[in-house]
Amino acid sequence: MKTLTFKTNINCGNCLAKVTPILNAESSIQSWKVDLEDPERTLTVETETLSPEDVKKTVLTSGFLATPK
To answer: Which of 48, 47, 40 is nearest to 67 (CA)?
Structure first.
């Protein structure tokens, strides 16, 4: 299992509500969370197979940016 972390622009609960169905639909993501208290709004993803670029593209489809840390 790999743990990938990203700096995001997911800033609030409404933003989180927009990205949640996209990340939940990605079967290669075992779990994920966004720390809204962190100034970098860190997204943490647990996956076996996805690359940071794959996760970045998935987040982008919901209209948000995710930059690998």
So the answer is: 40
